[in-house]
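hey m, so remember when u said the tokens were messed up on ur end? i reran from scratch. heres the input so u can diff it against urs
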Amino acid sequence: MAARSAPSCHLRLEWVYGYRGHQCRNNLYYTAAKEIVYFVAGVGVVYSPREHRQKFYRGHSDDIISLALHPERALVATGQVGKEPYICVWDSYTVQTVSVLKDVHTHGIACLAFDLDGQRLVSVGLDSKNAVCVWDWKRGKMLSMAPGHTDRIFDISWDLYQPNKLVSCGVKHIKFWSLCGNALTPKRGVFGKTGDLQTILCLACARDELTYSGALNGDIYVWKGINLIRTIQGAHTAGIFSMNACEEGFATGGRDGCIRLWDLTFKPITVIDLRETDQGYKGLSVRSVCWRGDHILVGTQDGEIFEIVVHERNKPFLIMQGHCEGELWALAVHPTKPLAVTGSDDRSVRIWSLVDHALIARCNMEEPIRCAAVNVDGIHLALGMKDGSFTVLRVRDMTEVVHIKDRKEAIHELKYSPDGAYLAVGCNDSSVDVYGVAQRYKKLGECVGSLSFITHLDWSSDSRYLQTNDGNGKRLLYRMPGGKEVASKEEIKGVHWASWTCVSGLEVNGIWPKYSDINDINSVDGNYIGQVLVTADDYGIVKLFRYPCLRKGAKFKKYIGHSAHVTNVRWSHDYQWVISIGGADHSVFQWKFIPERKLKDALHIAPQESLADSNSDESDSDLSDVPELDSEIEQETQLTYRRQVYKEDLPQLKEQYKEKQKSGTSKRRERAPGNSIRLHFVHGYRGYDCRSNLFYTQIGEIVYHVAAVGVIYNRQQNTQRFYLGHDDDILCLALHPLKDYVATGQVGRDPSIHIWDTETIKPLSILKGYHQYGVCAVDFSADGKRLASVGIDDSHTVVLWDWKKGEKLSVARGSKDKIFVVKMNPYVPDKLITAGIKHMKFWRRAGGGLIGRKGYVGTLGKSDTMMCAVYGRTEDMAFSGTSTGDVCIWRDIFLVKTVKAHDGPVFSMHALEKGFVTGGKDGVVALWDDSFERCLKTYAIKRAALAPGSKGLLLEDNPSIRAISLGHGHILVGTKNGEILEVDKSGPITLLVQGHMEGEVWGLATHPYLPICATVSDDKTLRIWDLSPSHCMLAVRKLKKGGRCCCFSPDGKALAVGLNDGSFLMANADTLEDLVSFHHRKDVISDIRFSPGSGKYLAVASHDSFIDIYNVMSSKRVGICKGATSYITHVDWDIRGKLLQVNTGAKEQLFFEAPRGKKQTIPSGEAEKIGWASWTSVLGFCCEGIWPVIGEVTDVTASCLTSDKTVLATGDDLGFVKLFRYPAKGKFGKFKRYVAHSTHVTNVRWTYDDSMLVTLGGADMSLMVWTNEMEGYREKRPCDSEESDIDSEEDGGYDSDVTRENEISYTIRALSTNIRPMFGIKPHLQQKEPSTDERPPVSRAPPQPEKLQTNNVGKKKRPIEDLVLELVFGYRGRDCRNNVHYLNDGDDIIYHTASVGILHNVATGTQSFYQEHNDDILCLTVNQHPKFINIVATGQVGDSADMSDISMRQP
């Protein structure tokens, strides 16, 4: 089964033939090292003419279309196309990424330019607005962005002589930009009478506000400021594509094939017409020019690069050429020499030398070429054409042998037989013709079995058989030369194929993904000797597989570089190289094949770094060579944390429901209760799906999380304090290096990360906006200034933050599989590691991106699932714990060795001053020396070692350890069962906190006269908890099944428990030993209740819609309540023990008589008057108000009434605990609401004396104890409660002015253009009756749109006077506040009205104005800081409202 692993050999890109000249300009430069930098397909190329050597930058994932050189000429910026295109800034010496800029543009990046000192970079997008964006590229941060123009922008440049000024040009426009603050403001160039309005293709800035630009008609336009001052006509005879400024002057290149050099004042120096030189040809068009000293580089439309030495200008030196525009499909290799032949839709066939990396022959044909083949002796070259003909040439001099046209559709594939006797020609009309070579290519046979176009052909070694593939993916065999189809399986079996280039067939099954029926693999070539197969596909990827690969979804190594379709791929004759060709990028890539034995030497040269990993992606097959996933990890990977409704959706949902409810809520509602509750203690710790989330703080308290609560536990006093800022499950926790701050990340649609102080429990920073669904790992940097986080979206995004500023520094896609941990390098703040399912990645920050490299496992092992990771003593040492119990030791990105540490997964790891501590599923804590050579000591977590001061009982020996931390002479351990233990170095173990294990918790009962409660859970345990000061678990008992309800008898001696299999039992409340048990039902027992008083009867409700009534004394069933249409949810007895109130899942409220169970119909008014022994019902007239506005989305799951019948507590599906005044009549009662549980609150109960409320979280498995604070007792606390869902009018509505202002909508005021919608006809446009003495005016029509403006040179124009604003009457007071201020010690008043800021001088009464706004100003403030005197900020309405900073001075 060798095919299950990727091949151990490797390809290295050695040469790329071609240059991207089509649709790109200004993309060819000399670097400081006199190398030449350009791009082709998705690869940046640095070519050294001296050594004739290429280096490649491969950080892009799609076609590169723009390039800019840093002023120091060592760094290069390149921009690509794609759905989420990005810009890479990279070093031309090392070809390593320096910075990645992303998340702003869409479609592609059309142009790039660095400013004079190289600190900032401007980019232009290909989106509909052609957005212009300025970056601080080192930090990867966008400084400013503005829409560029409605049409394409072709060039942009910084004005190198004026700071913060840019010029851009494109289709029929040129714009002059100024950057002020973070606003880019354009002014359009005025063409005036000096020149025609036309498309400007390129530009260069010069001194004295001069800008030179090249136009589509070959003129050069000269601008001063924003005005066109002169044109240099006929500089070129056609469009000027490129203009390059250097010390000596300017060089321009155009479509006419000429290069012109100009001096600094744009006086012509010389012309070089490339069409007239030795290498020239008709139609040569220049796309890029670069002038350095006496050398000029020229890039042409057809993919050549020339170098011209100025004094030998008629002998340009051709340093690179490739195919021209048109798809490239034909590829063949010479059978005996290192030569490759390519043919393209540009109608040329070219022969390349793979040793010299040069074009050695070229011949132009009449038709586009689609396929090629060279005969066995290397003498004949056959070319298949798009028109259905094929031509045979002699290789040595490219003269024609024959030209035959037997078909009408394109010839897509042809091949010579191994004995050289036949040529098979496959056509798109689904036939294959066979020709005899010796008979001057006479047609000998025809194969007609296919129903679709022929894609691939292969001959058998004895030339007797031919196999074909067609567009339907069918593989057929024919006997040669006649062309009879072979049907018998036996005959096929023995055939040995001379070559394998077919994409379907048993030997190549593995190249297809497991579940795909698509034909996106264009080409295959098998290397029998090396037992590898190379494939080319539509995604621009070249892959290496083992050969043969029989089972679908085989593993591979992949290589990127081509942008889109790789159309063909072949091994060279001696298997030294692989040649691949790109369809749309018309480039030819030559890859060096590095067999396994040489691979080890090659690795010590830095592995080529790229954003996409050059190593294999895991294929989607079930890997037989990977050990079974551990059951715990398996479970964990299946958790998605997705919610139907997120708390963030509530305001929106409420709005929707409010609209519907508008009419209904006229009734005056009860006010919220006076009582409030305060979270007092939480039993539980989140260990079942989180790791390394438990730490000692600075002062020795313990910080961890459970549900939506961050908990700080003081072990001396056994008290807890809470951080309640989260509103959903917390999934991860990290401690600041100073141990005083904590970062926690939660679940949510737009999940947040909170950084809070453990002393004050106040948030310091909240980070949102870059993750989806949840945050599963966080880590602080060693200096504490940065924070790394990982999301649980599909690509597990990794984000690096400056958390104090709340600013995202860098972001990258982590992995498609789950990531469990992120760790920042303690020595280098720009480096981090992530570890997860079959994933260990080493990242370094590059501007706004992160560059990740997969850990290289080599021969030491397999890529394993990593559960935890830490850094060692030096910056390049890292350690990770695997799911198989090993610890992997990494140096840089290489696995150095593995050490067996635990049986089962290593879940947690912690670095100490000297050495490490690890914890695993085997329940063992191990201490190690600092190189993992020796295990110094192990501690097993066992019940026998439990110290007397423990706050509870250990459920089992060796629980799975999920978190470990050291400090204060102890080891702190968190287990999967929700226990927190403190292990003393000498051995004894103290249990500090515990909760239920995994599985939902529903059953809750409080004791009739003691401060204790019982819970029962799906984890198959029944537990008794002490709610008074000791806060511990008093007793626990394992059950045979999980349970959903429990109840104490009225005397507190017995405890009834309902189980999930339909049985229930009664146990002694002290010892938890069985008294009696029954099994009458099949479905879950959902509620169980003793009748009040002596507890004579027991009502047992089940999910199969019945309630059984048992006589406790005689242990017999005495009655059955029938008539419910759905499962039973709640049961309550009346005080006399004669009547049952029942709620069902169909929201029915039913009444039954005890003990027989007869159904009673009681009107709601009467039901109120009945005295109920307990009230846990959620339906009925008395609690109509507890259902929220959005009752359709969320259920109220539980309620409980205080014994004085005044306050009703409820729990609901969204995790809210609410208090209502009882009875809660009328819809949407007011309440106080508390968030601590994450989702479903499954049960709530008051204690016997109402002093505490106990609540259960279903999925968060936590038991929370709240203290009840009576009405008089009020200490105002922040997180007390929130107002209710609907504020009706009588709640102290608004003052009429306030109401009016509240309802003003500013949206319609400003459309995206600055013209307000007007009705009627403006006065100067109204049709007046022309009186006899009045000449009709020349034109009353509105001005023509810009594109149609004609030059009315002949007409006389009236002079236009400028209007100057002198005085403004009015002040905006009707809907604005605090917008009048004194300035300059009371000499001036500043205020605003309409869209004008006004500075009014008190003494003179004169006004001066700020008029940069284009719509109503709504607010104004003055900077009070002494450093910023007279700085004013104003804000306006509009689509994307602007803020302006004005500096007001005395006019």
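this time it looks ok to me. The CA atoms of residues 1132 and 1174 lie 6 Å apart. if urs says something different then somethings off w ur setup not the seq
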